[in-house]
Request: fold
Amino acid sequence: MDRQRSVVKVWRSQPTLEGAGVHLKRAFGFFEVKELDPFLLLDDFHSMKPTDYIAGFPWHPHRGIETVTYMLSGRVKHKDSLGNGGDIGPGDVQWMTAGSGIIHEEMPQRTEGMLAGFQLWANLPASHKMMDPRYRGIDSAEIPEVSLDSGAKVRVICGEVDGVVGPVREIVTDPEYLDVIVPLGAVFRREIKKSYTGFAYVIEGKGFFDKKASSPVDSESLVLFGDGTEVQIRAARQSVRFLLVSGKPLREPVAWAGPIVMNTEEELALAFDEYRAGTFLKHQ
Ligand code: FE2
Reply:
Protein backbone atom coordinates (compact mmCIF):
# COMPACT_ATOMS: atom_id res chain seq x y z
CA MET A 1 0.00 0.00 0.00
CA ASP A 2 1.08 3.56 -0.70
CA ARG A 3 2.65 5.20 2.32
CA GLN A 4 1.18 8.52 1.29
CA ARG A 5 -2.27 9.35 2.48
CA SER A 6 -4.14 11.08 -0.28
CA VAL A 7 -7.13 13.35 0.10
CA VAL A 8 -10.33 11.35 -0.33
CA LYS A 9 -12.85 14.12 0.27
CA VAL A 10 -13.02 17.88 0.84
CA TRP A 11 -16.05 19.83 1.95
CA ARG A 12 -16.94 23.21 3.44
CA SER A 13 -18.22 23.61 6.99
CA GLN A 14 -21.93 24.45 7.05
CA PRO A 15 -23.75 27.29 8.87
CA THR A 16 -25.54 25.75 11.86
CA LEU A 17 -27.61 27.12 14.73
CA GLU A 18 -26.68 25.53 18.07
CA GLY A 19 -27.17 25.99 21.83
CA ALA A 20 -29.51 28.85 22.72
CA GLY A 21 -28.98 30.43 19.29
CA VAL A 22 -25.28 30.42 18.41
CA HIS A 23 -24.43 30.83 14.73
CA LEU A 24 -21.47 28.61 13.98
CA LYS A 25 -20.06 26.48 11.19
CA ARG A 26 -20.17 22.71 11.49
CA ALA A 27 -17.33 20.89 9.75
CA PHE A 28 -18.88 17.49 10.47
CA GLY A 29 -21.47 15.92 12.73
CA PHE A 30 -24.28 13.39 12.88
CA PHE A 31 -24.22 12.46 9.17
CA GLU A 32 -20.47 11.87 8.93
CA VAL A 33 -20.08 9.43 11.83
CA LYS A 34 -18.84 6.51 9.69
CA GLU A 35 -16.22 8.56 7.83
CA LEU A 36 -14.84 10.39 10.87
CA ASP A 37 -15.00 7.64 13.54
CA PRO A 38 -13.88 8.07 16.41
CA PHE A 39 -14.69 11.78 16.01
CA LEU A 40 -18.32 12.82 16.15
CA LEU A 41 -18.38 16.54 15.59
CA LEU A 42 -16.23 19.56 14.83
CA ASP A 43 -17.72 23.03 15.26
CA ASP A 44 -15.93 26.16 14.09
CA PHE A 45 -17.25 29.27 15.80
CA HIS A 46 -15.82 32.56 14.67
CA SER A 47 -17.59 35.88 14.48
CA MET A 48 -17.09 39.61 14.94
CA LYS A 49 -20.76 39.99 15.97
CA PRO A 50 -21.71 39.24 19.60
CA THR A 51 -25.31 38.58 18.46
CA ASP A 52 -23.94 35.48 16.71
CA TYR A 53 -22.66 33.91 19.93
CA ILE A 54 -23.86 35.72 23.07
CA ALA A 55 -26.84 33.36 23.66
CA GLY A 56 -24.23 30.66 24.33
CA PHE A 57 -24.77 27.11 25.50
CA PRO A 58 -26.70 27.29 28.81
CA TRP A 59 -26.80 24.29 31.18
CA HIS A 60 -26.99 21.01 29.27
CA PRO A 61 -25.93 17.41 29.86
CA HIS A 62 -23.38 15.22 28.09
CA ARG A 63 -22.79 11.48 28.37
CA GLY A 64 -20.64 9.02 26.45
CA ILE A 65 -18.17 11.46 24.82
CA GLU A 66 -15.10 13.62 25.33
CA THR A 67 -14.94 17.22 24.14
CA VAL A 68 -11.91 19.39 23.36
CA THR A 69 -12.51 23.13 23.07
CA TYR A 70 -9.70 25.23 21.60
CA MET A 71 -9.96 29.02 21.58
CA LEU A 72 -8.11 31.22 19.11
CA SER A 73 -9.49 34.55 20.33
CA GLY A 74 -12.12 35.83 22.73
CA ARG A 75 -13.34 34.09 25.88
CA VAL A 76 -15.82 31.40 26.90
CA LYS A 77 -16.95 31.10 30.54
CA HIS A 78 -17.47 27.57 31.71
CA LYS A 79 -19.15 25.96 34.76
CA ASP A 80 -19.93 22.31 35.39
CA SER A 81 -21.57 19.88 37.79
CA LEU A 82 -18.15 18.72 39.06
CA GLY A 83 -17.69 22.21 40.51
CA ASN A 84 -15.24 23.41 37.86
CA GLY A 85 -15.50 26.92 36.57
CA GLY A 86 -13.33 29.34 34.65
CA ASP A 87 -12.53 31.23 31.55
CA ILE A 88 -11.19 29.68 28.37
CA GLY A 89 -9.16 32.47 26.74
CA PRO A 90 -7.10 32.92 23.57
CA GLY A 91 -4.93 29.86 22.88
CA ASP A 92 -6.42 27.93 25.83
CA VAL A 93 -7.82 24.44 25.67
CA GLN A 94 -10.57 22.84 27.70
CA TRP A 95 -10.68 19.10 27.74
CA MET A 96 -13.71 17.37 29.24
CA THR A 97 -14.59 13.71 29.52
CA ALA A 98 -18.33 13.50 30.02
CA GLY A 99 -18.22 9.73 30.69
CA SER A 100 -21.25 8.71 32.79
CA GLY A 101 -22.50 12.28 32.83
CA ILE A 102 -21.72 15.92 33.31
CA ILE A 103 -23.97 18.98 33.18
CA HIS A 104 -22.30 22.20 32.12
CA GLU A 105 -22.70 25.60 30.55
CA GLU A 106 -20.41 27.24 28.02
CA MET A 107 -21.02 30.95 27.58
CA PRO A 108 -19.03 33.01 25.06
CA GLN A 109 -18.26 36.48 26.43
CA ARG A 110 -18.83 39.73 24.54
CA THR A 111 -15.56 40.54 22.79
CA GLU A 112 -14.31 43.69 21.03
CA GLY A 113 -12.80 41.85 18.08
CA MET A 114 -13.23 38.32 16.89
CA LEU A 115 -14.47 35.42 18.99
CA ALA A 116 -13.02 32.28 17.46
CA GLY A 117 -12.52 28.69 18.44
CA PHE A 118 -13.30 25.04 17.84
CA GLN A 119 -15.07 22.26 19.66
CA LEU A 120 -14.22 18.68 18.77
CA TRP A 121 -16.17 15.69 20.09
CA ALA A 122 -14.37 12.35 20.40
CA ASN A 123 -16.48 9.28 21.00
CA LEU A 124 -15.91 6.90 23.92
CA PRO A 125 -15.91 3.13 23.38
CA ALA A 126 -18.65 1.01 25.01
CA SER A 127 -16.14 -0.01 27.70
CA HIS A 128 -15.65 3.66 28.72
CA LYS A 129 -19.05 5.26 28.10
CA MET A 130 -19.84 5.24 31.83
CA MET A 131 -16.36 6.13 33.15
CA ASP A 132 -16.06 8.88 35.77
CA PRO A 133 -16.27 12.37 34.28
CA ARG A 134 -13.17 14.57 34.34
CA TYR A 135 -12.24 18.08 33.34
CA ARG A 136 -9.07 19.97 32.65
CA GLY A 137 -8.47 23.58 31.66
CA ILE A 138 -5.13 24.17 29.94
CA ASP A 139 -3.57 27.63 29.65
CA SER A 140 -2.14 28.73 26.34
CA ALA A 141 1.31 28.97 27.98
CA GLU A 142 1.22 25.22 28.72
CA ILE A 143 0.82 24.34 25.05
CA PRO A 144 4.24 23.83 23.45
CA GLU A 145 5.06 25.22 20.03
CA VAL A 146 7.56 23.31 17.92
CA SER A 147 9.44 24.90 14.99
CA LEU A 148 10.30 22.23 12.45
CA ASP A 149 13.27 22.28 10.05
CA SER A 150 10.80 22.64 7.18
CA GLY A 151 9.77 26.04 8.56
CA ALA A 152 6.39 24.80 9.77
CA LYS A 153 5.27 25.72 13.28
CA VAL A 154 3.16 23.31 15.31
CA ARG A 155 1.23 23.93 18.53
CA VAL A 156 0.97 20.50 20.12
CA ILE A 157 -2.37 20.29 21.88
CA CYS A 158 -2.49 16.52 22.01
CA GLY A 159 0.14 14.10 20.74
CA GLU A 160 3.90 14.25 20.26
CA VAL A 161 5.99 16.20 17.75
CA ASP A 162 9.81 15.92 17.78
CA GLY A 163 9.71 14.52 21.31
CA VAL A 164 7.49 17.37 22.56
CA VAL A 165 4.30 16.09 24.15
CA GLY A 166 1.12 18.14 24.28
CA PRO A 167 -0.75 18.70 27.55
CA VAL A 168 -4.03 16.97 26.59
CA ARG A 169 -3.42 13.32 27.47
CA GLU A 170 -5.24 10.06 28.11
CA ILE A 171 -8.08 10.69 25.72
CA VAL A 172 -9.40 7.21 25.16
CA THR A 173 -9.33 7.19 21.35
CA ASP A 174 -5.61 8.17 21.32
CA PRO A 175 -6.02 11.33 19.27
CA GLU A 176 -3.40 13.68 17.96
CA TYR A 177 -4.52 17.32 17.73
CA LEU A 178 -2.12 19.84 16.18
CA ASP A 179 -2.47 23.49 15.14
CA VAL A 180 -0.07 23.86 12.21
CA ILE A 181 1.21 26.83 10.21
CA VAL A 182 3.09 26.00 7.00
CA PRO A 183 4.84 28.94 5.28
CA LEU A 184 4.80 29.30 1.52
CA GLY A 185 7.46 27.10 -0.09
CA ALA A 186 7.72 24.62 2.81
CA VAL A 187 6.52 21.01 2.78
CA PHE A 188 5.00 19.73 6.02
CA ARG A 189 5.26 15.95 6.44
CA ARG A 190 3.59 14.07 9.25
CA GLU A 191 3.01 10.42 10.01
CA ILE A 192 -0.50 9.50 11.02
CA LYS A 193 -0.74 6.04 12.57
CA LYS A 194 -1.84 3.38 10.12
CA SER A 195 -5.59 2.65 10.14
CA TYR A 196 -6.27 5.79 12.19
CA THR A 197 -8.79 8.33 10.89
CA GLY A 198 -7.08 11.58 9.89
CA PHE A 199 -8.41 14.96 8.84
CA ALA A 200 -7.34 18.57 8.48
CA TYR A 201 -9.50 21.66 8.91
CA VAL A 202 -8.23 24.80 7.20
CA ILE A 203 -8.28 27.90 9.42
CA GLU A 204 -6.47 30.47 7.24
CA GLY A 205 -4.92 30.58 3.78
CA LYS A 206 -5.05 27.83 1.21
CA GLY A 207 -3.08 24.63 0.89
CA PHE A 208 -2.39 21.49 -1.11
CA PHE A 209 -3.16 18.53 1.12
CA ASP A 210 -1.49 15.73 -0.81
CA LYS A 211 1.38 15.30 -3.24
CA LYS A 212 -0.84 15.08 -6.30
CA ALA A 213 -3.24 17.89 -5.42
CA SER A 214 -3.58 20.42 -8.22
CA SER A 215 -6.21 22.73 -6.75
CA PRO A 216 -5.75 24.29 -3.31
CA VAL A 217 -8.17 23.80 -0.42
CA ASP A 218 -9.63 26.97 1.05
CA SER A 219 -10.26 28.03 4.65
CA GLU A 220 -13.37 26.67 6.42
CA SER A 221 -12.86 23.38 4.59
CA LEU A 222 -12.49 19.87 5.96
CA VAL A 223 -9.96 17.56 4.31
CA LEU A 224 -10.43 13.85 4.92
CA PHE A 225 -7.35 11.67 4.35
CA GLY A 226 -7.44 8.11 3.05
CA ASP A 227 -5.38 5.10 4.17
CA GLY A 228 -1.61 5.19 4.41
CA THR A 229 0.69 6.77 6.93
CA GLU A 230 2.21 10.08 5.84
CA VAL A 231 0.44 13.30 4.95
CA GLN A 232 2.22 15.98 2.92
CA ILE A 233 0.94 19.52 2.98
CA ARG A 234 2.09 22.67 1.15
CA ALA A 235 0.82 26.23 1.21
CA ALA A 236 -0.62 27.96 -1.83
CA ARG A 237 0.15 31.65 -2.40
CA GLN A 238 0.60 32.48 1.31
CA SER A 239 1.06 30.48 4.50
CA VAL A 240 -1.67 28.02 5.42
CA ARG A 241 -2.90 27.34 8.96
CA PHE A 242 -4.92 24.25 9.80
CA LEU A 243 -5.85 21.79 12.51
CA LEU A 244 -4.48 18.30 11.92
CA VAL A 245 -6.34 15.65 13.89
CA SER A 246 -6.19 11.86 13.95
CA GLY A 247 -7.55 9.11 16.17
CA LYS A 248 -8.27 5.41 16.46
CA PRO A 249 -11.63 4.37 15.00
CA LEU A 250 -13.95 2.51 17.36
CA ARG A 251 -16.15 0.73 14.79
CA GLU A 252 -19.02 0.40 17.26
CA PRO A 253 -22.72 1.19 16.85
CA VAL A 254 -23.56 4.84 17.52
CA ALA A 255 -26.86 5.97 19.07
CA TRP A 256 -26.81 9.76 19.18
CA ALA A 257 -29.34 12.35 20.30
CA GLY A 258 -28.17 15.93 20.87
CA PRO A 259 -25.46 16.05 23.55
CA ILE A 260 -25.61 12.33 24.43
CA VAL A 261 -23.92 9.60 22.41
CA MET A 262 -24.28 5.94 23.39
CA ASN A 263 -24.17 2.56 21.63
CA THR A 264 -27.86 1.62 21.75
CA GLU A 265 -31.27 3.36 21.64
CA GLU A 266 -32.04 1.84 25.07
CA GLU A 267 -28.99 3.50 26.61
CA LEU A 268 -30.00 6.76 25.01
CA ALA A 269 -33.58 6.54 26.32
CA LEU A 270 -32.26 5.68 29.79
CA ALA A 271 -29.98 8.74 29.76
CA PHE A 272 -32.88 11.08 28.93
CA ASP A 273 -35.17 9.36 31.50
CA GLU A 274 -32.48 9.82 34.14
CA TYR A 275 -31.98 13.45 33.17
CA ARG A 276 -35.71 14.13 33.58
CA ALA A 277 -35.83 12.21 36.87
CA GLY A 278 -32.79 14.03 38.30
CA THR A 279 -30.69 10.84 38.54
CA PHE A 280 -28.44 11.55 35.54
CA LEU A 281 -25.28 12.42 37.46
CA LYS A 282 -23.44 9.38 38.80
CA HIS A 283 -20.48 11.32 40.09
CA GLN A 284 -20.51 14.82 41.62
FE1 FE2 B 1 -21.48 21.14 26.00
